[in-house]
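Page 42, continued from yesterday. The earlier attempt failed because a stray header line got pasted into the input along with the sequence. Redoing it now with the clean sequence only.
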Amino acid sequence: MKNILKLIRYQNLLIIALTQVLFRYCILLPLMKRVQIAPFMSTITFALLVLSTILVAAGGYAINDYFDVRTDRINKPKKMLIGRGVSRRQAMLIHTVFSITAVVIGFYIGYKAGNIFLGFINLTIAIALWFYSTKYKAYFLVGNLMVAIFSGLVVVVVWLFEMESLIHHGSTFVLTIYYKYIGIFTISYFIFATLVSLIREIIKDIEDYEGDKKVGCTTMPVVIGIKKTKYVLFGISIITFLGLSYIAYLIKTQKLTMFFWYFVIAVCLPFLYMGYISIIAKNKSDFTLLSGIVKFCLLSGVLSMLVFYMN
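This time it went through. Structure tokens are written below.
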């Protein structure tokens, strides 16, 4: 069981669940409550939505490791799970069962929301993760962008299912200013999660440079070299910092003091440090530090929703 939990990256799954729970209870519901609009999705339906998101992600992790055996033998032989703690058959079974279950739940929730086509979200992601693992992961930037976008969609699906439910049942909430506020929050967190995940994926490609090069992958570090890839990381980090700084300015104009200082210290400034480390990084320990900073940024960004609610 321990090896299976490692295979499906249970820590990442917990972050996914936390993100969706905080977005619903700290952003979505409080803003809806201001105009006395009750959510259409019940707690059970929302729990199923979270479960389906976790399952499709877990299935993706399993199939990724299934097809990553060759590079893992070179890049992280001591951390390999496929063929050691978990058999290839088990990994494929986990992917299949989890993905199918996620798709079925997705269509059920879509039906409940009044738009069964929403079920195609999980189906599309499950299929895309398969092709990512078998093909696109090895392509220049394509695999990185796919994973980054999927990470951003974690928040979007909560907004989408709830808003579609309200629209289908004729709710007047879509006519209020708070509907626009939620849309802004959703887009902001989507962009943030996408950029952070993109940075993380590029760092992983640098760490896996040797194995990827030997098996013929055309990842960014293999194509343009590690030095130029570090400049790309620096650029994305600074662009993200500038965008977050503008958001911090908007927060300050709303006189949300506690939220402002948390956002500046825990969310904005780490990107400056990340940019600095990305330029001076030389060995594996430096990139491990970078990976840790990225994880911190992602978690602090997620927790910012809780701070916003408290403020």
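Notes: The mean pLDDT is 88.
Reminder to self: strip header lines before submitting.
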